[in-house]
Amino acid sequence: QVHLVESGGGLVQTGGSLSLTCAASIGRAGSYGVAWSRQAPGKGREFVAAITWSGFTTYYSPSARGRFTISRDNDKNMVFLQMNELKPEDTAVYYCAAQDGRATMNLDDYEFWGQGTQVTVSS
Q1: Which residues in 27-91 belong to E strands, given as ranges?
Q2: 68 and 46 in contact (C-beta within 8 Å)?
Q3: What is the distance in angstroms between the CA of the first residue and the CA of the last residue of the chain?
Q4: Which one, of 95, 84, 96, lies nearest residue 121 by Cα?
Q5: Residue 115 DSSP class
Q6: Is 108 helix (H, G, I), strand (E, B) or coil?
Q7: Which residues make beta-bridge pairs with 105?
Q8: How many CB atoms lie within 10 A of CB 54?
Q9: C-alpha–C-alpha distance, residues 34 and 24, integer Å
Q10: In this structure, is the dihedral angle defined by the CA atoms of residues 82, 39, 54 and 56, taken in order, positive or negative?
Q11: Do residues 37 and 43 lie in contact, with contact meaning Cβ atoms separated by under 8 Å?
Q12: Where are the beta strands (DSSP E) in the chain?
């Protein structure tokens, strides 16, 4: 099993920055790809970014590319999402998810999910 806990959400003004952290407790050895996704009120869950186990390959949604950066520290079992130039449309609950194996942009591939952290961007 993999237990994921997100942190770092909060309220920020338009143009501001936030850094989210996904801390993992790994009970089953593996090479886990990790993704960040988000869900805004009344909308479905949306892929944001993903990173392979090695950290060498990353994927971004068009809305995240150029503003968000995903990274990881495997020694600490943490994955980060640095979010810059935040916009009101970035307001959502942000979730991290993990799967044993490759990282993908398909959220259905991910087996383990955290509880989410709220990000609110005021205009």
Answers
A1: 32-39, 45-51, 58-60, 68-73, 78-83
A2: no
A3: 40
A4: 84
A5: -
A6: helix
A7: none
A8: 11
A9: 10
A10: negative
A11: no
A12: 2-7, 10-13, 18-26, 32-39, 45-51, 58-60, 68-73, 78-83, 92-100, 112-113, 117-122
- What three-state secondary structure class fits 15? coil
Give the residue carrying structure tokens 């950290």. 55
3-state DSSP assignment of residue 75: coil
Q: How far apart are CA 121 and CA 123, in angstroms?
A: 7
Q: What would the pLDDT profile of 39-86 be if each residue is shown by its tens digit?
A: 999 999 999 999 999 999 999 999 999 999 999 999 999 999 999 999
Distance CA 52, CA 65 (A): 17
pLDDT digits 0-9 by tens, 101-117: 889 999 999 999 999 99
